[in-house]
Protein 1
Amino acid sequence: MTSLPAESYMATMSRVPAFVLILLLAACAAFNVGGQFVAGREALLRNDPQTALGYFLAAAQGDPNYVFRAVYFHEGIWTYVGRAQYATKRYQEARQSLERAVSMDKDDHLARLYLGLSLARTGDLALGIKEIESAMRGIYDWLEYINRTRPFEAYWDPAREIRKAIEKDLEYISAKDFNPEQLIADAEWLGKRMEEEIDYVRRDERRQYEQDHDRRRGVSLGVGIGF
């Protein structure tokens, strides 16, 4: 395919309405942010937080209000920035990013969880434990709600592994006499496990969709042959 000369290209572009150009630029920017986010999340899941941080910061610069949504769950970009900062031991920076995430969305439970962890790591243990407890209750209640209100889509935590761990930790906290380091380790496990659960749920949802599609196709073929 022959490319247009530079003069012809500029002349063509000058005839495109301004609002169309704005839409095209916005679409390109959104595509870039989405790609940066996906690359960052993949790096985070493979335990490469330094690489993940670079991608997340670039995505946040492109769209500071970006929100990742997957099967009813959501996390803001600043949650991911803070999580990567926490994983690279930039606890003070993580605290600032996660405070921003929570201020933007109080129902971003993983933001609150990692804010609690960052507070605990920067010396504010009492407030950190309070935030961790609040986040655990929020995650637990959300899992209960999503399974109760969508019984035919109950892919989240089907064996109650996550909720059982939370129940144990909440009981642990209520006892008052507990090891903070153990609670921190449990909270870190919870954050990682919830992120993995997102992909498990997406996989199960995709598998269910394919099975339903094949079943409908089989019925359709059967009816067609019968007639």
Note: Confidence is low (pLDDT under 50) at residues 18-28.
Protein 2
Amino acid sequence: MAFCSKCGAQLEGNERFCRGCGHDLSAAGAAASAPGAAAASFAAPAAAQPVAPYPQFYPAPGQIPIVTMPQEVPKHHGWIWGVIIVAGILYGLYYIGSHDQQNQPQGQNPTQQPGTAPQPAGAPPGGPNATVVQQQVFSSQWRLTNGDVEIYNARWQNRSNVNLQSAKVECGQYDQNGTVLSTQHATLDGPNQPGATATYNNSPLDMGSAVQGLTTVNCGIVDVTPAQ
């Protein structure tokens, strides 16, 4: 079997020119050189380079990374502590304001009704003004201020038909058993006309030092001075 020495096409052996490329085949040794040429033309391809191994997707045993979940941040109840702190501050301010001048204990004196003796005296008043005294009504509140008994929010109502210039108030300090520990006096200035009520809200009456064991204070009018 012959081959073209130029293009390597297969020949039947009696051609003068190659049917593939038109090469002149009359030269001597065309048929013999054809296989070599063909061998040269169709040399085996170089061996392919070995493919590099594909990198492993999974890590080697013992090197598996451990994924840790983020720790949940504990919820802080800061607003609760804020409320407690504010409440404590407000209570402290209230306590200081209510105890700043030692205004404890305090109470309200029962109202002295007309026709009854003043509560601390224990007996009806005598003298020319006894009837007028029985027609006076007195009410007030008491408190301790720096160790003294103070009478405030006092009201003196004259239910007699006499115009009065002043009235004497007697306040008694009592213990828890109702025993009189001490008595003090103060003067209410008038004039106080018949049927009128005088108030002494802005002028507390100082009744002296509190006695040990004091639990309550009662006051009443024990004498009056008619207007001239």
Note: Residues 28-43, 98-104, 113-123 have pLDDT under 50 and may be disordered.
Protein 3
Amino acid sequence: MTAFSYQLYSSRMFPPLGDTLKMLADLGYAQVEGYGALLDAADAIDALERGLQDTGLAMPTSHVSLDMCRDDPARVSELAGRLGLKTAIIPYIQPDDRPTDATGWSAYGAELARVAKPLADAGIALGYHNHDFEYRPLADGHMPIDLILHASPDTVLEYDVAWAVRAGADPMATIAKHGPRILSAHLKDIAPAGENADEDGWADVGHGTMDWPALFTALKDAGTTYFVMEHDKPSDHHRFASRALAAAKSF
């Protein structure tokens, strides 16, 4: 049976963290995924470590900034030892930092390859998490996500399927092309057009327009290990967490 995970960013507007972790454990989650703000300060890290110990939840993956992975791999290794982290995932590229052509995207991928080496030496894999812009073709037809992964062969992909769909991409094409590289997938859903405006047009997993039963099967068949529930702006994180888990168990 799949051990489902939950991206804690989904609950950032519903403190305290300890209550969120207890809620997730009570609902039946086995894992969580961290994000940058939980790793930035000593008290936040202490609270996360204590919450994981108290609930028995594991945290095999976390979003970690490129700056930390590149400039302080020893810090990432320390956090991995405390939190059980196995894969550090680069979460986002700010608009001003995004390359604009194929050469730039290939150079970014090459940088990830350099960053991955000291982490790998410490037993930590490096991952990359997409949004929509990596799935928008460049003027020459290249797709940024393809350039990143080609230039960084040891970097795994955390596939945020719904963001790729929002960019107009065919998710099955990515699974067919990069399936063995997809270590983790974000299970996120898109509301029908005009609905859930207060939640930025997202929906609870299994309650939107995404064909998640078919996608889940394809990802499992491709070898995806981690399935992480995420909603960028839920109005009720308990509703989202419970409905998403129930839906995923039915896939």
Note: The beta strands are 5-6, 31-34, 58-63, 87-90, 125-129, 156-160, 182-187, 189-190, 202-203, 226-229.
Protein 4
Amino acid sequence: MKVIAAQWTTTRGWTFDAPEGLFEPDWILYFGATARLEPANGPVRELCTRFPKAVCCGCSTSGEILGDHVSDDSVVAALVKFSGTKIKAVAAQVAGPEHSSAAGKALAQQLRADDLRHVLVLSEGLKVNGTTLIAGFREALLPGVTLTGGLAGDGTRFGQTFTGLGEKICSGQVVAVGFYGKNLAVNYGTEGGWEAFGPRRLITKSQGNVLFELDNQPALDLYKKYLGERAAGLPATGLLFPLQLLANSSAPNGLVRTILAVDEQQQSLTFAGDMPEGQYARLMKTGQDGLVHGASQAAGAAAAAAGQLAILVSCVGRRLVLGQRVEEELEAVKKVLPAGSVAVGFYSYGEICPPTGLRQCELHNQTMTITTLAET
């Protein structure tokens, strides 16, 4: 397995980290700013035209990651040549959250095979319910097949996200890549670094990923009281104070959920994943040091195998909290990953990965999620 990193910028165009020269890749994985994925003659199509035999896929971002650096208004890519692993990529349209489960199941069924080892999912970031999307995949995949990935971003605008497979780059699309063969080593890790505070509030009214009431009070009104002056910047400022979803009133830990949209008329909050009635929610906060430590822990879990390609998916909320220290979490990851690993990734609207130490995949928010791929 050989991996080359590449980056496109407005000043230099495409540059490749290829000291021994370019090769014909089997797979190109890219992450780019929303504006750079739209043009018909844009950098992604230029890359696909240059390497027509490669499976080319990717998504829009809230920041592009290459090594231990983050950039905006660029496109980053990993060009991968496998020695024995086979890949197949498929895509499906998702008109709205209610179609997420069916899309996940349909994509999984197209990829399903006895030698399927892993699936990487790059999803539309605003029109899906990440929880049910993953449930659809889990229902159709064979036991033992792992699943990771992320939800596309659009900066802090929350306007429109894109995913791409080949020449088709559009919104409302989920792309899934299947990896086949016994020689592929896959590892993953996901950690947050956030801490819960305040009372546990019962979810008394919700529908899928839309939360209407907490403790029989309008969810948006209650949430605004916590945010104070920051409420004027919703939904973006909601990234600074996610909610912890708890299975019951005494559960010590739970999944983190980030706000994607607010509805003033319904006084509701829309999240990237389900907020089931009868469960509990609690506010969360963090500091910069906590996020950096969480990123290091995720890298430690993912680096159990010598990963030749490391795919980093970190939540846009983490970037907002870290501010000018954002690259410190990437530096922490680099210190833990094996020497020679190529790291590419993006800041996302949601992360897809099994919790560290487990195999059943979940939707996360506000985490650093790392997938490492290598051939043995």
Note: The chain has eight helices and 27 strands.
